[in-house]
Write a structure and sequence with these properties.
17 strands, 2 domains, ten-stranded mixed beta sheet, metal ion binding, alpha/beta, single chain, Alpha-Beta Plaits, 12 helices, five-stranded antiparallel beta sheet, Amidase_Cbmase
Amino acid sequence: MTEPRESKSIAHHVDAERLWRRHMELAQHGATGNGGVNRQALSDEEVTARRVLVGWGEAIGLVASNDAAGNLFLRLEGTAPDLAPVLIGSHIDSQPTGGKFDGAFGVLAALESVEAMVAAGARPRRSVDVVAWMNEEGSRFAPGMMGSAAFTCARKLADILSVHDAVGVGVATEIAKVLAAEPDLPGRPLGFPVAAFVEAHIEQGPILEAEGRTIGVVTGIQGKRTFRVTVTGEENHAGTSPRSARRDALVSAVAVVQALQQAMWDDADVVRFTIGRFDVTPNAPSVVPARVVFSIDLRHPDTDTLRDLGDRIPALCAAAAGRCAVEVRELLHDPPLTFPDAVRDRIRAAATDLGIPWMDIPSGAGHDARYLHYHCPTGMIFIPCLNGLSHHEAESATKDDIAAGARVLAETAFGLANQE
């Protein structure tokens, strides 16, 4: 591994203290009492966080804009602005009990990268856009990655706008609120040409930390299928209805879950099967439950295995539901993917030139880079997070690792922006 380059590099102008301070400041928008962040998609907290990002960008000469899907862009104009730009960024929405770094690191590292270019007096040939994609997490509006899916035309904007949250508030209403809060920002079209996209992110797993590596060069993303299962029974009195007369949706739902868990079990521990949401109606102590709705999140790195396991789910649910009716609706089917060698090679070269230890690593989690992969050459950069913990208020990363990730991103983005 080579020694770090001298101070004329773009990476030298990454300011670790400024980058850390911005993480802490952004985390105040939606801060929880346990040190985490609740900044869900299109919420008032995200509106104020976007305003902060725009202010930081404009202070260094970036031009802010947005699009009809609520994606936010901050542009450093290149010397050949008519060329397709390079996009770098991630998202700033969070889980209800999320941390300070998931998503936010990718956006703030992108902002720091272009600020380093400005500080170095190195204007790239292509423009570089810092992007914050709308609703990556999918915690308020499902499924996630709505902004990147709309941008790349993987999903129709009209379908996205029709989605509502648990209390009936629609995406269309909330995007209108966000755009009304940014009246001075020009609009941009969905799906404009992009030369490349690079997303920096915490690993959300323990491998980099265990291996003592600072940078993960992400090889690709495992496949994912999500489902919504509705089990319908009948309300009845808890004290008077005999077992023989009951159509207990909760009892049937538990049987369905057990059947699914057994069917998805693999000794190699490669399958990722999760039921993360379980809603019971009427959810009253003395009433036999009439309806249960639960989520299924199924992931696997092999295309055929993911397809076969997912295709078994409807029949498994029907067989285990007993006297209740069951409906299975698939929400998402994203196959596994591999990022192109050209982008991965640039990330490896940047880390090597800077003397930062790296390794190749697959992504078990989904990211906006999934949809950009089908729109332009795409890559991802991981940094370690403490104990691999994420989607948790205790999520943590070190100041040095954050700065190292930003340095590799800055060099990678600058190189991509100067290519033919």
